[in-house]
């Protein structure tokens, strides 16, 4: 088995439904039940440093050119959207990038989409239901350092002309139940939000409550 080179066929680099940002070089032994990660590289690096093999119909990269630690990784994180891992949800697919959410529902958002901030959202109707106006729970990430993010959690109406009911609580919690930040809606609020900082792999919870009705989401940065 040749482990001196890493190869990726051209289709996995150029076809939008197959292409990725980062590629892992992995050796697998099904018989012995193990796998070994030799390193990783980016799509850009494969095309820049790799050699195109006509017979293989793809790019080959010397093993010595693979990155083997996060410290050796160039500023690639700007190319990758931070993601939230919805580890305790039955239906994680209901979360989607905020831009796709408002486009799919043809909503006029009550929040600004800022540059260099990545925001995910979902519709929530378990706690609050407003006629003809879905409510969006959104989580935005703004990088402060390579490992630290400003996290903005917002509950908003899909139309800036429609207000939230009074006494809706938005609470962020540590996994032990300690409150990180919380906010409560008042008269004529069409959104409420909280902000806090977190590091990669930090786990936190979002709770929405009104009276006896409540819902909780558990997320990992």
Assign the structural class, choosing from mainly alpha, mainly beta, alpha/beta, alpha+beta, or little secondary structure.
mainly beta
Radius of gyration: 22 Å
CATH topology call of the largest domain: Immunoglobulin-like
Q: What is the 3D form?
A: elongated
**What is the total domain count?**
2
Report how far apart the termini are. Answer: 37 Å
Low-confidence stretches: 81-93, 104-116
What is the name of the CATH class of the largest domain? Answer: Mainly Beta
Number of helices: 3
Keywords summarizing the entry:
2 domains, five-stranded antiparallel sheet, 3 helices, 14 strands, 44% strand, elongated
Question: What does this entry look like structurally?
Answer:
The protein is mainly beta and 221 residues long. It folds into 2 domains: 5-79, no CATH class; 92-220, Sandwich (Immunoglobulin-like). The protein is 9% helix and 44% strand. The protein contains 3 helices and 14 strands. Strands 6-7-8-9-12 form a 5-stranded antiparallel β-sheet. Strands 11-10-13-14 form a 4-stranded antiparallel β-sheet, with no helix packed on it. Strand 2 and strand 3 form a beta hairpin. The longest helix has 8 residues, at 98-105. The protein is elongated, with a radius of gyration of 22 Å. The model is unreliable at 81-93 and 104-116 (pLDDT under 50).
């Amino acid at each position: 088995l040749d482990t001196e080179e890493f190869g990726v066929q051209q289709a996995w680099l150029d076809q939008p439904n197959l292409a990725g940002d980062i590629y892992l070089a992995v050796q697998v032994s099904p018989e012995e039940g193990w796998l070994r990660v030799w390193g990783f590289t980016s799509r850009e690096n494969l095309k820049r440093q790799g050699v195109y093999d006509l017979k293989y119909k793809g790019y080959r990269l010397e093993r010595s050119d693979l990155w083997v630690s996060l410290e050796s990784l160039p500023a690639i994180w700007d190319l990758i959207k931070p993601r939230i891992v919805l580890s305790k949800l039955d239906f994680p697919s209901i979360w989607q990038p905020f831009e796709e959410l408002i486009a799919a529902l043809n909503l006029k958002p009550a929040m600004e989409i800022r540059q260099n901030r990545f925001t995910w959202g979902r519709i929530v109707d378990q706690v609050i239901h407003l006629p003809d106006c879905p409510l969006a729970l959104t989580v935005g990430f703004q990088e402060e350092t390579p490992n630290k993010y400003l996290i903005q959690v917002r509950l908003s109406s899909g139309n800036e002309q429609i207000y939230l009911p009074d006494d809706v609580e938005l609470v962020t919690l540590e996994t032990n139940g300690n409150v990180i930040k919380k906010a409560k809606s008042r008269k004529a609020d069409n959104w409420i939000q909280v902000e806090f900082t977190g590091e990669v792999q930090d786990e936190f919870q979002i709770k929405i409550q009104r009276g006896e009705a409540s819902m909780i989401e558990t997320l990992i940065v």
